[in-house]
Amino acid sequence: MRGTADDRSLCAGMMRRIRHFGDFVTVPLAIVIFVDLAGVDHLYLVLLGLAAWTLLEYLMHRFVFHRFSVGRRLHQLHHDDPSNGDAERSSLSTPLMAFPFGFLLIGTAGLQAGSAIFAGLLLGYLAFIAVHYAVHRWPIGPNSWLYSAKIRHLTHHRFESCNYGVTTIFWDIVFRTNARIVGGGIRYGAG
Predict the structure, then answer these.
(1) What integer is the mean pLDDT of 78-96?
(2) Contacts with 120 (C-beta within 8 Å, 6 or more apart), sequence order
């Protein structure tokens, strides 16, 4: 028995929300599980994983999404329509991409150390999706702590050769890809 058009529309809307917001439920749960597996004495490795995420985020965004053809084509959908949630990554793909790395980390570093590092990477990813969502969809004023992240990211959307870091400016400064708009043009190395 087939549902009505309203039923199908409701189902499609629910799947869209799950696909887009599922990471905001599953990733925190995974972080808790992996931190528990790591144990309290490995929390410093969680911080190491979080720091490693910032570099991974920068490198993935700069090279995979802006240089390699498959990543570039997928990421271009987001640049073409930044407000379209369907043009962003899907929560359904996160486990497929993340957990092989988690198993590799656990296999090479051991259960506790690998779980701690993986929890930190997941924590960084959670920060990334939260900040990215906010800068595209929240009204952020100049007095907000997210304002500089929003301006940096909007500059990236206008001039794609800069500001690859979403959660931090650090690697853009290190690799000299930090920029801001000045008088309608771009100025590199700006704070």
Answers:
(1) 61
(2) 45, 46, 47, 48, 49, 50, 51, 52, 53
